[in-house]
Amino acid sequence: MSQYQLIALDMDGTLLNSKKEISPGCREAIEKALAEGKEVVLSTGRCRPELTEFRKLIPGLRYVNCTSGAMVYDFREQRVIYSNTIDIPVVKEIFRLARKEEAMLHILDEKSIEQTNQLAHIDRYGMGVYKELHARVVEPHDDLYGFYMANPFPVEKINLYHQSMESRTRTKERIQALALPVEMVDAESSSLELTATGVDKGMGLTKLCEALGIPVSASIAVGDADNDLSVLRAAGLAVAMGNALDSVKAISDATVADCDHDGCAEAIYKYLLG
């Protein structure tokens, strides 16, 4: 019987295949694990509105470690287990800096919010693969900057989509120069993910395990990208996808098949249920 009680699955590039779908094989593995009393957790940079369709597909998925650890949520009880947001003055400053590079702004919180004209041209920002998702779940605003400045609120996460890696680097340098209290993680080809200082997927997993009374050493994390490094380091067992970055494989205890060949199902059967 496996010593592990919980598995935290990243979504894009991990649980989701290249078509952004959960394969029948992975779905079956998750349902089997849940039926055996194991916890299967979505560990993702996505926000809650972007997870609805997957919970409909697998209703037993109860807990999420979302917006890169800024929100740990119990969908069954509709209860916040843990949250940590970026303060309003910091959000405003990030928005100002983003305008210098004409970066596409994306607020991830209780809602997923973007600017209308940027959403229509999301391909320019290296995010074309997410076009259909954003069209379904995003709340568009004609002037997102003006909307936020007039109606500010703390934010779980901000994604800044740039048109080049060089543009992203300049934004990061400006944020560092101002010593803004945020965590920064590169994502996709030229995106920048921002959360409050100390917030990452690893912290989210730790808070969830504490709430469930599960030692974090009894957890497994599966991922593929730089924003998974913290959760892989926190978990008792770190599993890299076959398509993972070298930086992810370097710190992982094991590697499974890629996201198009049911790597998550392999991790569940071999390590959670094995």
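Second entry:
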Amino acid sequence: MKKKIFADALKTLGVFGGIFILFFLGMHFLSKEKKTKWFYSDQKTQLISYEQEIELGELISKYLIANNKEKVLKTPLIDSVMWAVTGRLQKQIQRSEYDYVIQVLDNPQVNAFTLPGGRIYVFSGLLKFCDSPEQLAAVLAHEMGHIEQRHTVDKLVKEFGLKILFSILTGGDSVLLTELWQTVLSNKFDRSQEKEADQFALKLLEDAHISPRSMAAFFRKLNRENLAYDEQLEMLMTHPHNNSRIKSSLEYTTNEGFEEVAFDMNWKRVKEAL
């Protein structure tokens, strides 16, 4: 009788042990397939749900447009270009929490910035600056890296704290929204976050059959246009030095069999239309 009870206990332990092992292996596989964003985010950021992050981005975006801070450019040509480039990138992001909204603003600056919740704004000056849609794709892939790893909301949590962000979500204070907008526009991420976004971008470009070297081409042009930083200041900056980013892009090794697929568009016509 005791032997039977002991044998039944072993069977029960074996069943539960098997379930635990399968659960552990499943979680391990999922984390290998795509790192969950909790690993990238500050602990306080975890207290903000993705739904709240998306709502926060919508509030800032509405404030941006309603107060004429920037004018959105919408033409069939610009829309088709942005759809082609961003759509190709977004298809390669597995299990994203975000439905990306990417718009072009009528601003001559060579810049792009992200809002919480999957919103990216590209200045028309950046489109004019890029020599190819592949260079634009490199910039957008970098911005997507900031979003997927929750760098933007991390920055806002550090700057304002959870209490203020939650108060904005419940009240939409215009003064606070102005400060949020200015903070987001500053684009000040720390060096580790910039490097993470660059590495994310290089892999995303490869997956989308866009040469990762397009990032190097973009930063080389920045250097030629004297928009680079002095190399001696690299350790004092939040952004990695352009030459460091060029080096990382050129040294990135694609998988064997990688084939670049060019965008089917007249880029010269796009730039002339801006």
